[in-house]
Amino acid sequence: MKKGDIVVIRAHGITKEIQRKLEEKDLELYDATCVFVSQIKWKILWAMEQGYEILFLGDKNHPEVKGITSYAENIQIFSDLEELKAAEIRKDRRYFLSTQTTLHQKKFLEIKRYLEEFHPNVYIFNKICGATQERQRATEILAKEVDIVFVLGGKKSSNTKKLYEISKSINPNTYFLEREEDLEEACLQGKHKIGLTAGASTPEEIIRNIENKIRGILDA
Fold it and tell me: Fewest beta carbons within 10 Å, which of 14, 19, 93, 192?
């Protein structure tokens, strides 16, 4: 890249080191980082200034988590309650807990209850995306009411994978579709109530194409 090139920062954000390198190159930067992701980053910086040690709940390999946690020092990252229980949390220190924005709400509440009971010295900052929570709740309801559920979106998408996990835990007839070619006609046999849900980043065209294919099969 050369001076003046246009760079758009994706919704997941970027690491502190990448940010520094981009700024050094004198590029034209457009920051499209999700507002929730940015709020978590700034809140963590505030917490460190106040003397808190940082705990973070999320997938350490996810780009959002890599970006946020790159701004923290002496941070402990864990993905579930079992990992948290194994973390070093001392009674004589103050801790600040934040989370990945697409975290499963039930997982967060489970950990919140544990910390409130055993580690009241942990300040809990919940910034799970509101839209993500609504999709998760809607998927739970949907999975109970239909014969089969199709979860549409990329298999590398964190929020889409969580929708699949939620639905699958309730309705075993749950299928992950990235494109209309993934839909197998046989799985619709004997099914009358069909449910569709999709990740936040799933293109409208893919949703529409899969819906039309399902309607075509059922109407045949």
Answer: 192
